[in-house]
Amino acid sequence: MTWRLRDRLRWRWTGRRRLHEYERFVQLSPTMVTLAGHDGYWKRASPAVLTILGYSQAEALARPYLEFVHPDDREQVRHARQRAAETTPSFTFECRMRHKDGSFRLIEWTITPFPDRKEMYGIGRDVTDRRRAEREQAAIQRIATLVAQEPPRSALFDVIAEEAGSLLDAAEARLSRFTDDQSATVVGHSGSSSSPLGEELLATMARSGRPVTSADATTLAIPVFAEGGLWGSLAVAAAPGQALPPYAETSLKQFTSLMATAIADAESRHALARLAEEQAALHRVAMLVAHDAAPGEVFAAVAGEAGTLLGSDISMVACCNGDGTVLVLGSWSTYADGLPVGTRVTLGGHNAMSIVARTGRPARLSNYDDATGDPAEIAKREGWKSAIAAPILVERRIWGLLLIATRRNESFAADTEQRLATFTDLAATAVANTQAHEQVRRYGEEQASLRRIATLVAKGTDPEALLNAITDELAGTFAAMSAVMRFEHDLSEVVLVGKSSEIAVPTGSRWPIKETPAAAAVQRTRQSVRVEAADLVPTAGPNRAEIHRPGIVSTVASPIIVEGRLWGVMTVSDRDQLPPDTEQRLTRFADLFTTAIANSESRSELAASRRRIVAAADEARRTIERNLHDGAQQRLVSLALAVRSVQSSLPASLGDLRDDLSTVAAGLAAAVDELRELARGIHPAALAQGGLSAALRALARRSAIAVDLKLALNERPAEPIEAAVYFVVSEALANAVKHSAATLIEVWVEHRDETLHLAIRDDGAGGADPRGWGLLGLRDRVEALGGSLSVDSPLSQGTRITADLPFRLDPLRPSA
Question: What pLDDT, on the 0 to 100 scale, is given for residue 405?
Fold first, then answer.
């Protein structure tokens, strides 16, 4: 009995000792040791529960342990409890347990079930830090792999935000980039947008440069340092009703410090890519200019390249006019219609365009809520949210502006003004080059136009044809309507003497000078003038609205002064503002036209003088012929008759005297015939009596060489023309008889429209000298009447003389 009692006491003592050691292990263990029943409560919990989860034993045992489990992990714990009720082998699983401070710890549980006792022992190890480190390393590895692939910057920033949110189980994460004015632009985002991440938190962090946590520990912002300064922030927000874990700041600081290199690398690559894109864009524009592209094509390219590079929805190039408006010359947009080329916008009010035009510096408009003016109305109609405009300076003056705008709520990046200004500086060079090319081309075209007009002037083109040519050249050179008006009635009226095809008013229309502002201004100043739209509103006159219609914006007029006399005015008009150098350019045309008018008037006066000389000579010929016919010829005929009468009255015995008188009478008759022939050569009576046809037939009959005469005249031409044709034919027949040894002479006279055509051809020896006095005199006579004469006389091939004369002549003005 003693031995058995001793063994029993020893077993009890040993059991108590082991139980004491177990209790001591439970009390001292850094891991949680729990005994749980199948009813869902812990029956015992080690002090480590307080250390790891912050709950006292009483708090831990008073509530179902599922209440400590993260809602998303409760189903997993229920499954583990069911498994413990059915099996005996130990097993392991992980779940998140709520800390008393509201955060969650990741606990790795090893469960040893006792199904027969409906209990299970659990040992819980806190693996939060280990798993977080593993997740951080995995996140960094994923980001490093992504960086190596050189993704778009936006994709990398989104991944950084996503990994940061995942590390802290946050509902939202935002990676923001600070601008020069410390405003933040979200460049990477993950999660929902319903979390309370606000600008105030970021502003506080930006001012201090330190991490900032909200008072309720639901949001956290960590500064991101890159590129040698405060680059931006990484902010996270917990789900509604939850707080961020206590380690959130430490973990996020470590993560952002590692991500700074990736961000700096991405920014560097982005800057290089952006620079390359800008250079490529500017190169494309420069190539257009170098290849002498049309200005409209260059402006469209500038707008398109700038809009694409800077991420806008619309961009435009507009030139500043001198009337307080800008004119869109190039436009690009991501949406239909946009702002078409040719749109005219009135400056004024508070808006980006007007600020640039007023200050000559870039301007940003973050919203159009308080904007005013015509540009603001256009922006609101088009749905623009913000806009930036920069001046295009050419030769130190504001040539125009480049504007970009967006319909999105996001503002443009902080450096957009600088980038836009840099772009416009280079674009201004392209514009200047385009203008230089345009000026060179325009100068070449202008010189070619002036040369064509000068050629017409040198050829002696008639004034009407010259006027039409000049107005067409003006319209083509200036791309505008053109007109030439002559002053009449002591400068009180103007007559339209030339016009371009766009003007429907007939030539010859006339207006009082007071109804033509441009002509009136020239008449007052005798200088080139510019008249704007306000002065061109029609006041009266049935035709004035056609040549000075209200749609005309600008008119430039230059005087035509001939030998000190104000002859008329030359104008160009357009529906757009004419270039500033139009007055100077138009003056060159007016000077050339002045020379043409002076030359034309001189030639007209010379031709009239020559015609007067020919007419005077013809009149003198007629007078001589008439005097010979009525005077000497009649006296000789009377004398011959008297001699014959005396001869017939003498007796037969005076036969010698009668023979002498017969000889005298015959001589007198011969003298009459010679005098008649002389008179016919001076001016044939048949020409005056029977006209050209009768006179030419008489010449043909008297010719010693056979003449084939072909006449096609339905009416008589002007008297001087008849005389000229007669003398040309007469001289040609006389020359042929004397020199050609011809057997046949052919003569054609034909009335063709307003021209009398003459052709004379013989089959003689040829070789006639066109410079001979006879032919030169005929040419002078023909040309004095506005005609032409040519001689073709190759040796052994006969002679051909052709002449073309006007069928009718304008009445001669008396000489001064």
Answer: 93
